[in-house]
Amino acid sequence: MILLMTTAPPEKSPWGMAGKLPPLGLAYVAGALEKNGYAVEIFDNYLMERSIEEVKLEVRKRQPEIVGITCSSLTYTRCIETAKAVKEAYPSCKVVVGGPHPSYMPQTMLQHQEIDYVVIGEGEQAMVQLVASITNGEKAETVAKIPGVACKLNGEVVKTAPKFINDLDQVPFPARHLLPMKMYDRALSYLDVKPVDTMSVLRGCPYKCAYCETRALWGTTCRAFSPQRVVDEIKHMVENYGSKGIYFVGDNFTINKKHTSELCRLIVENKLDIKWICETRADLISKELLVDMKSAGCQTIFFGVESGSPTIQQKLHKNIDLQEVKSTFDLCRQVGIKTATSFMLGIPGETVEDMKETFKFAKSLNADWCLFNIYIACPGSELYDEVMSQGLYDQMDNYLARVKTKDFDYDMLVKIQRDFQRNCQRSASRLIRVIRQEGIGSAVKKGAKLIFH
């Protein structure tokens, strides 16, 4: 039996997820393993938050031949603790780690003797081949040649480049049946229905944003599930889990406009009564496409604008015209689709004046939701390398860096963030919009909440 696990969330971290969502990555790997005839279980400890001793009990009870643990830079310490617990509980099992951090820095995982193998990049094919090699008792030299696998060979870390899946329709549905779906946070403020569930629709990104590590994990080519495959999975979600809302995960949902329009057509044609939100760039939108999306149930679009300063836009390699961003938000309002957007504060080289420029631009967009986030340098990105090489940080949390420059430090950014968030939400135009959309009662409640918080 193969046991796939998440770790408990880190204690007192300002960056942990507020909501608890199903671990889609593990569910995809589980689905691929089941398709190949393996018995699989998932223990989502990010959801359950069980102690290390309780984790040991779970492992002893199941006695798995292989344990796979997903890991991010945020949960790195927890992952090592969990791997040690697994080996103490059942020494004969093999421990495999995968996910973002192991993909970027496999050597930091394999320096711990409790970890036998690392899966780099997307895990379905690599994990299936790795499990087959382990269960067949193949030699380490053979295992080390599997694409997307890193391990120790003769005392040295060796790794083989991942092989990406071109036809994503070959990937089975995520094995959500192995997860306690009713225990997750299946509500989202961006959608007025529930339960809301997440779906992955594409992988890879051709853009070169300096702050983002996506390309290092999923590759530089955008690969998408076909519109028919997406519709089939929506039907599956509705029939098996009662889904009424879908959050389509993926930074560039509308990167292929023809593909997106076809998906919308199929949703309408199949009479799927579903509301949904997607993420995309503001320069990947047209009015015709928005009309199609609205007719198919799109309620909200999330745009990561990141900065209102042209200087910082260039620094980030975002390469998006701010006037085009405004035009896109206007088009969304015309069509009747709500908008959500996010901005980052604390980019290396950014000044307080740049941040004020971002705030002014953010208010001008008049989005339905606007978030200001503090930039944290994360492995796998161009900016992370700059921060580390120039020592532009004053605190490390595992492998995440809190940026500090001559213009700001983390504590200062927290104060700016709170001020921006409070003042943006209090705007008169926002309250007027809430009155129009939700009524005077809701506006009064939200206004009071902003005043007292």
Describe this structure in words.
This protein has 2 domains: 158 residues, Rossmann fold, CATH 3.40.50.280; 267 residues, TIM Barrel (Alpha-Beta Barrel), CATH 3.20.20. It has a 7-stranded mixed sheet with strand order 2-1-3-4-5-6-7, sandwiched between helices. The protein is built from 19 helices and 18 strands. With 453 residues, the protein is an alpha/beta fold. It is globular, with a radius of gyration of 23 Å. Helix content is 42%, strand content 19%.
Which consecutive residue ranges, at least 5 long each, have pLDDT under 50?
431-453
Overall 3D shape:
globular
Placed side by side, the strands forming the largest sheet appear as: 2-1-3-4-5-6-7
Report the strand count: 18
Level-2 CATH architecture of the largest domain: Alpha-Beta Barrel
For this structure, the CATH topology of the largest domain is TIM Barrel
Q: In a few lines, what is going on in this structure?
A:
This protein is α/β, with parallel strands linked by helices. The chain is built from 19 helices and 18 strands. The chain has two domains: 2-159, Cobalamin-binding domain (Rossmann fold), CATH 3.40.50.280; 186-452, Aldolase class I (TIM Barrel, Alpha-Beta Barrel).
Keywords:
6-stranded parallel sheet, Rossmann fold, disordered C terminus, TIM Barrel, 453 residues, 42% helix, 19 helices, alpha/beta
